[in-house]
Each structure stands twice: as C-alpha cells, then as structure tokens.
Amino acid sequence: MINFKTIQTEIDACFLYKVLADNEEDPNVANVFRQMSEIEESHALIFMKKNGLDTSNLPPPSGRAKVLKKIGQMFGYDYILGVMLDTEKSISTSILSARNKHQSAVSLSDTAHVTILKNILDHNPNISGSNLARFEKRHRSVGGNALRAAVLGGNDGLVSNFSLVMGIAGATSGQSEVLLTGMAGLLAGALSMSLGEWISVKSSQELYENQMALEMEELEHNPEGEEKELALIYISKGIPEEQARKMAKDIISNKDHAHEVLVKEELGINPEDLKGSAMEAAITSFLLFAVGAIIPVIPFFFLSGYKAIILSTVFSGLGLFLIGSAITLFTGKSVWYSGFRQVIFGLAAAAITFGIGKLIGVSIAG
Q1: Which helix (H) or strand (E) holds 314?
Q2: How many domains is the chain partitioned into structurally?
Q3: Tens-digit pLDDT profile for the chain (366 aa)?
Q4: Distance between CA atoms of 316 and 335, rounded to whole angstroms?
Q5: Cα–Cα distance between 204 and 197 in angstroms, integer?
Q6: Do residue 264 and residue 290 come from a single domain?
C-alpha cells in the first residue's frame, strides 16, 4: 500500500526548508536550510521510487505547507522553523519505518531533524561559532512559538465561556443575565490567564537571576573550583582532557565571559531568555483569551431566548472548527478530522452545562 501521507510530509518539509533558506539573511545558515531541503527531497524521491511512482516530477506542496508560508510572510519565518521542529518525531518515525521495511542502508542524514542540522553545522567549515550559537538559540526559542499560544489561548477562552454562557442560558431566558455572565466570564478568565502568565514569566526570571547571582559569587570566591567544573563539563562532551582544561583556564581568566559561559554550560540558562517582558506576556494572554471568549457572547448583544442560543452555538461551532483546523498546522492531521473533533468536544461541554442550567432553572422555578 502506497503511503502518500509520508511522501507528502517529505515534500512539504522540502518546500518549507527552501522557504526558510530563501528568506534567511545569514548565507551560512541559509545554506544549512538549503541542504535540509535537499535531504527531504531525497527522502521523498526514495519513497516514490520504492512505491513505483514517477520520480521525474515531485507533487506540489500541500495546502497546509502553503498556509504556513503565508504565516511566515506575515509573522516571521521562525514560526515555520518552530512547526518543522515540532514535526521531527513523525518524520523520523517515517524514515525509520521505510529503512526497516526496505532494509536500506543508513543515509548521510540522521533520522532526527535536529541531529541532521547539527551534523551539517558541525561538518561545514563556513559555519562560525557565532552562527552556530545563533542557530541553536533560534532552535530552542521557536519550538513553543507564539502562534501555538494564540491558538490555544483562543480555544481556552471560547470553550470555557461558551460553556458558561450555555449554562446560564439554560437556567434563565433573560438576555441581560446571559450577557452579564458572559462578559464577567470573559473578564475573569482573561484576567486570570494574564495574571498567571505574568507570575510564570516573572518568577522564572527571578529564579534565573538568583541562580546567576549565586554563580557569580562562586566565581569570585572559588575560581579554581569553577574552572575544574567547567573543564569537567567539556570533558563530558568528548573534548580531550588537556584541551578541555586549557579551554576552561582561558575562559576563567575573563570573569565576565566566564560567568556567561558558566551560566549557560552549568545552569543551562540563556541570558537572552531573561529579556522577555512579563507585562507583554500578560497583555498578550489577556487578548488571546478575550478574542475566543467574546464569540459566544456576541448574539446576546442583539437577541434573547432560543434565537440567541442557536446563533451563539453556530458562532461557537464555527470558531471551534477554525481552531481545530489551525491546530493541524502543528500536528499535520486532517483539517476535517481535527476541526470536527474540536466542534464535538466543545458542543458536548456546552450541552452538559446547558442541561445542568436547565435543571437548576426548573428546580428554582418549581
């Protein structure tokens, strides 16, 4: 049986890495992406050849890949890299499966995209240390990108407020009561989300800053011990002992540079990560939740009773389907499957709260 999905995954990866290469300012990093595109193209051709398909012309990229390109044009191409890194596991599984099935030899590329990228970087003499550090920083930072946060934040707001609105609508037919509850739920949920995000970012920054201060104190009072620790870290990475000790000695001679290296190597902290604004994260979280939460409330500004309930359900269903469809940008699943799954879960939650509200309303009325 021909696995068209695996072939399409490789074609999309080839297309998206080429998009990254074409829009990368650094020529050396662009070359890395271009080589990744070639590797993915070779995977696609191998799968097509094994399945007896015509390899003279690759099929076009999928609609999902084209949408991701548009998103990159609007919001920045690091979003595409984040999605690519999120799909590494599924692509690696496909490659391993094909190799086992056809008993093919190991290719130049590894099974995991990160390993492929590191191999290319490590064996390319034109990649400087600064470029390698920059690429690795981007790799770490884009994995949980803001686009994912936007989708999930909107989903939280929509599902929670839709359920709340339906519960109150079931208990009372009053337009003002439902509208007041919906707006209260929007504000309460959005404020809670934003405060939680602010506390999370701020507490992480304070923890890292405290650890960095302790590291500086240790460096000032026990530089010999820190030099030994740094040497051991390098030795554990496979660097020869004599070279590792020389590297550690050279680094410790400059206190500020030594502190920066120790923070990264010993604590695993990237100082760049401390520059994020807790307030910006809080405001963003508030807005994302509010956008989703306002959808089920809109009809109640103009209507009441079952007309408003039905219209609210339609609006919310459409919103849920769009959110489910957007999630496929990260998962690669079918748009229809993911969209309707989201609709079913959301409507089920709202139906339960509506039913509970109806029972409570009848009980109170009785």
Answers
A1: helix 305-331
A2: 3
A3: 556 777 888 888 889 989 988 988 878 778 878 888 887 888 788 888 888 888 887 889 988 889 888 888 887 777 777 777 666 555 555 555 655 665 554 443 434 455 555 555 555 555 555 555 555 555 444 444 456 667 788 889 999 999 999 999 888 867 788 999 999 999 999 999 889 888 887 887 777 777 777 777 777 777 887 788 778 777 767 788 888 888 888 888 887 777 777 777 666 666 666 666 778 878 888 998 999 999 999 999 998 888 999 999 999 999 999 988 888 776 667 788 888 999 999 999 999 999 998 888 655 444
A4: 17
A5: 11
A6: no
Same domain, 222 and 349: no
Assess whether 191 and 320 both reside in one domain: yes
**176 & 79 share domain:** no
**In this structure, are 258 and 286 located in the same domain?**
no
Q: Give the pLDDT score at 120.
A: 53
Nearest residue to 40 (alpha-carbon basis) of 23, 26, 61: 61
Side chain identity at residue 306, one-letter code: Y
Question: Quick one: tokens of 80?
Answer: 């595409």
Q: For 61, which DSSP code? A: P
Q: Can you tell me the distance from the alpha carbon of 322 to that of 335, in angstroms, rounded to the nearest whole number?
A: 9
Q: Rounded distance, CA 26 to CA 132, Å?
A: 11
Per the structure, the complete domain to which residue 170 belongs is given by 146-198+278-365
Ramachandran angles phi, psi of 144, nearest 5°: -105, 70
The count of other CB atoms within 10 Å of the CB of residue 151 is 20
Cβ within 8 Å of residue 68, ≥6 positions away? 16, 79, 80, 83, 329
Q: In angstroms, how far is CA 256 from the centroid of its own chain? A: 33
pTM above 0.90, yes or no: no
* Cα 19 from Cα 68, distance rounded (Å): 10
**What are phi and psi for residue 167, nearest 5 degrees?**
-65, -45
Asked whether 329 and 63 are in contact (CB, 8 A), the reply is no
Q: What is the pLDDT of residue 214?
A: 73
Residues 327, 189, single domain; the answer is yes
Q: How far apart are the first and last CA of the chain?
A: 63
Count Cβ atoms below 10 Å from residue 364 Cβ, excluding itself.
9
Q: Give the max Cα distance, the chain.
A: 86
Could you tell me if 257 and 160 lie in one domain?
no
Contact 97, 50 (CB under 8 A): no
